[in-house]
Design brief:
- By secondary structure, this protein is of the alpha+beta class.
- Helix content is 35%, strand content 19%.
- A hairpin with a 5-residue loop joins strand 2 and strand 3.
Length: 153
């Protein structure tokens, strides 16, 4: 495990865990938070660490699993379901929820690709202040955009 990944794990507990726990999420200690809804749906927030060319970065995956959704891996327990088990229409990356810059340009055929939604990855480092700053921004985005998106699913 790299110093950056260790810093991420430590800062997740210090920065993100209190905010999501306050919202009713449980932390599995493996970078995934889950919250059961009154209808039995499971809301999932997962922190994915980059590998190879994405090393030193992380992204946030969101998903909503509903009872009856097919799980291809039948060995997975409901309490351990991940966002990749959710149907594609109920999965999203947190960065994709942010309003793109120059949103009007999304309608222009060639420029739309450049100004559409972005798959955002945030930096992590063995220098804890960099990781902490990233997680503070992510926590704000989760509360402002991620959690409302999960609720709408």
């Amino acid at each position: 495990m790299s110093d950056a990944t260790r810093a991420l794990d430590q800062q997740l507990r210090l920065v993100v865990l209190p905010a999501l726990k306050e919202q009713g999420f449980e932390f599995d200690r493996r970078r995934t938070f889950r919250r059961a809804g009154p209808d039995g749906a499971i809301q999932i927030v997962n922190f994915q660490v980059g590998e190879r060319s994405m090393e030193g970065q992380f992204t946030v995956n969101l998903g909503v699993y509903r009872p009856g959704d097919p799980i291809h891996d039948t060995k997975v327990e409901l309490g351990k379901v991940m966002e990749h088990h959710c149907p594609s229409e109920r999965r999203k990356r947190l960065g994709e929820l942010r309003a793109p810059a120059f949103a009007g340009l999304r309608q222009v055929p060639v420029l739309g690709v450049l100004f559409g939604s972005v798959d955002r990855w945030w930096p992590i480092s063995g220098a804890e202040q960099i990781t902490r700053r990233s997680l503070e921004k992510v926590t704000k985005a989760l509360v402002d955009q991620g959690l409302p998106w999960l609720e709408r699913q």
